[in-house]
Every structure is written in structure tokens, then in C-alpha cells.
Amino acid sequence: MNIPQSGLSKQEILATLQAFKAHDMDWQGGKVFGYTYSPNADSAEVMKEAYLAFLTENGLDPTVFPSLLKLETDVVRMVINLLHGDANAVGHLTSGGTESIMLAVKTARDKARAEKPQITQPEMILPKTAHAAFHKAAHYLSVKPVVVDIDPATFKVCAEDMERAINENTILLIASAPSYAQGVIDPIAEIGVVAQKHNLLFHVDACVGGIHLSFMRKLGYEIPDFDFMVPGVTSLSCDLHKYGYAAKGCSTVLYRSKAIRKYQIFACTDTTGYTLINPTMLSSKSGGPYAGAWAILNFLGEEGYKQIVQTVQSAAQKLMDGVSAIPELRVLGQPAMCMFSFASDSLNVYQLADEMAKRGWYLQGQFSTPLTPRNLHISVSFGNAHSVEALLKDLRECVEIVKAKEPIDSDAIKMLIGAALQSPDPEAAFAQLAVSAGLAGTELPSEMAFINEVMDNLPDPICNMFLINFFNDLYV
Ligand SMILES: Cc1ncc(COP(=O)(O)O)c(C=O)c1O
Q1: What is the pLDDT of residues 257-289, one digit of tens each?
Q2: Most distant CA atoms of the chain, gap in Å
Q3: Pairing of strands 235-239, 251-255
Q4: Of 69, 229, 254, 286, which residue is 20 to 30 A from 1 by alpha carbon distance?
């Protein structure tokens, strides 16, 4: 496509953009159980207006746009207060959970560089359930990830196992509240004790849980301490654009003190250009996400969030009970809030996800690990809470359909993978396998079960290669 010679009309543009959405999944109808977190129509409207009012303001320079400094410090303080930070706690708004996590890891790395220069290969210790954003941070920042296995029954890491992994190169401990995959909270208080004993930084990833769990706590649910209440916790990530119901592009990274946070900030006067001082990864950035987050927090207020959390928790409990009542399915672990996953010992859950997708539902396939089964993930939020009964009805029917279906021949796939691994040119053999799995070219796959089956059986590095090649082809 080229830039058109002369511009299109507003009507043409908006109609074309709308048409592009034709094949998107129906999140507005409440059939997508992940990715989107929408509040009620009134809140969404206020948020949109606020977002648009600051669309063009640039968060690069608070001296030119003090309004954005005010919005950021207000939002950060509201979240710090929710998460029991004291007057010394500080933080920043970022573009999302991944950026918050990458900044927390960078801060730990640069603090160690300054205070422990003898460490040449810094290491961070994280549970197997920690989000992939930590691996991305490790990859970008040259920090070695030391992964600790979790209890396969509870999906929680054990503080003693974390402690056993500490050595002279360790700079950071990591845990989740909750983990995305199974929605369980690691033993934060116990890991906090380990962090203090070894004088280590300890980051809690509360990207999904920070806000929702805080309001559950205010509503009287029993929630273990997971935030700055735990003395050993030195930083937290907490997203506004998930269970804060803000528009995309807004998370917080929070530190117990400025003494830690200062390692996050980057300044550069070494060029012929303007003085650059960036607390976050982005430099120029729209004020829209700041204003959207500020607006939704102030519009909903504590009462609004409590109502949302109550509605979502009732729906999530109904859904978990309904899934557990289907004999072929079982919920994994004991989810702490409204996110959970389920597995099956008798049918292929990837085929089940495909059957559900034919009816418009999005359930997210997750791979097995040596200790844990393949499973499907569900995140209940305000925008889909009303459709849990309909989802359960279709889930029960789709289980019966999959039971009657030809199962995928997993042994044959394992043999193909084995042959590719032995081949004289494994890269070409795996490229061929990717084509036959339907994971190649510029078309999006319509069914995922076979692809997921192949990928679940691949060794991780080869699976990652598959996925990288897939995107390398898809985005032309
Ligand atoms: C626990 C957790 N941490 C981090 C992230 C990454 O957040 P984002 O997608 O906003 O970068 C996610 C995303 O789902 C998450 O669930």
C-alpha cells in the first residue's frame, strides 16, 4: 500500500477502519476472556474523552507540560496508597506491564553495578510461573534468569527453593501477585523475609492483581499481604490498563524509596541535541494514557471499583464452579481472584478452544511444562462477567463435541519432531514442519489445535524459533 495521492474523506477513513475490525473477536459482546478489560459505558465514555483531551500532549518534558507531571504524580500516588506505600514510596507511569517490569530489572541491575561492581554476570531468581516479560527483560538487559520450579499442585513457588538459588551474583528476587497463568499468589511474605535476610531487592509483579486484589481486601476477602505491607518488598508493578480498567498504555512501577528509584532514571547531555532526561523507556509519549487513567480512577472512585470487583468475583466463582462440575475438566491450583486455568486428563483442550472459537469465544491455550499440564486460561473481567452462564453452556456442549471427535495423533507429531531433530538440516526440517502445521506465510491460522499440539511437543528453543519465524513472515 502507498500513501494515497490525495487524502481520503473522513467518512471513507472511518468506514474503512471499522471494516478492518470485521474479523476481530467479539470483545464488546463479552466473549473474549483475556486481552481487554472494559468498564461500563459511562466510565468508558469519560475515559475516552479524557484520553483524547491529552492525546497530543507529550510526556517527554514536564517543564513544557506540567499538566502531565500532575496527572502522573496523582495516579502514581493513588496506586501507592492502595498498595500501602508510605510517604517515601515513589513511582512512574509506564506504557504497560512489560515496561514496568523491564524498568524494575534495569533498576536492580544498575544499582548492583554501582554498589556491587564485583558482579559481572548479575542474576535474578524467578518462579516458573513469572510472566515472560521477566525473560524479555533478562534478554534485553543481560541479566541471567534463574528459574525456580513451582509446586505442581498449588502452582506457587516455595520461599526455601528461592533461597537455595541465591548466590554471590544474585541481584533480585521476583514473585507474582498473582501469576497470570493460574492466578495464584506466591508466598510474598516468606520471600520478603528471604530478601531481607540476604539484603536483596525483591520485586512483586502485581500487574494484574494490584488493583483488583486491593479492592477484594477492602471488601473483606481474605487476601495474603502482597504489597509494600511486606517489609522485604522493594518494588511493585501494577497495571492500570488491566483491572484498573484504564485505556491501554498505562501501568505503574513503584519503589519503596527514591534511593532505589534513582537507578531507573536515564539522562544524556552528550549530543548536540536537547537535554534528554527519561525516567522510563519511552521518551516522547502521548498524555492520553495518563489522562485516561486519572479519569477512570476519579470517575469510578472506591465505590465504583468495589462494585466492579464484587460483580467480577461472583461471575468468576460461578465459572470456576461450573468448569469444576464438568467431569472432564479440572481447575488448576486455587486461584486468588478472577483469573484461572483448567486442564483435562481425557480430552485435548486445544481442540476444545477451537470448538469454542467457532462459537465466538476466546479461551487462551497455554503450554505444558515438565511439571504442569497443558491448559486453557480464562480472565474474567467486568466486560465479560455477564456472559459466564452462556460460556458454560457452550463449554459443556463443546466438551461433548470434542469427545466425539478424532483426537490429534500426538505420537505421530512426536515422531515428526524427532525426525526433524535428527535431520542433517534441522532448520529446513522445522521450517517444513511449520508449513504443515499451518504456522507459516502471511495468513493467520483459522484453527489452532494442531499448531498448539506441535508447539507443545517442541523443545522450548525450537518452539521460540517457530514463533519468531511466524511473525517474521506475517508482518510484511
Ligand atoms: C502478571 C503479569 N505481568 C506482566 C504482564 C505484562 O503486561 P503487558 O501486557 O501490559 O505488558 C502481564 C500481562 O498479562 C501479566 O499478566
Answers
A1: 999 999 999 999 999 999 999 999 999 999 999
A2: 69
A3: antiparallel
A4: 286
